[in-house]
Design brief:
It is a single chain. The protein is α+β, with helices and mostly antiparallel strands. The protein is built from three helices and nine strands; from the N terminus they run H-E-H-E-E-E-E-E-E-E-H-E. The longest helix is centred in the first third of the chain and has 36 residues, at about 1-35. The termini are far apart.
Amino acid sequence: MEHRLLFVSIVVVVWFIVIRFLPAMILSVFKRAILVKGFGEGPIPMNTLYTQPQEQFADPLHSAGSRLTITGVNRDTIITIGWLDLRKGPLLLHVPDMSERYYSLQFTDPSKNAVFAYVGKRTTGTGAGAYLISGPGWNGNVPQGLSQISSPNHSVLLVGRVLVSGDRDLPAAYSLSKQIKLTHIHSGVSI
């Protein structure tokens, strides 16, 4: 009886540890993969966006020089990804006019693995837009013409998707994906 109680106690403790710490460990590995390894073309610096190469989208298994391919459950969107650090202040996100094309930019709090905001066709429309992404406790003035996205954490995982309607549409979708820009608020970029 004592052995059974000890075994059950150990299983409960291990289960608690796995549930509590595994998501954070996986996210840490994912963050390291993005910032240190990148996606086939080297590291992706903090506070920058990376769009998968057009060649990888067109032929993910046979792209020349490809070490790692961004893949997902669907093959109809071009992926853009970035890891943001808001400790030094807000960032500006510029989105081009998508001309009614479906797109989404998902903002995730990695500490809780929880989505806290979207920019995209279903939430903000398809017109060009500029967004101020601020961290917790930031209370500065939002410049006119910008919409504010308040993050609950200084660290943000940004995942973007732009719909590709077919092979002929790939160059246009890729061009729009590359026009999604992230800049520092102090860089003097016009809004």
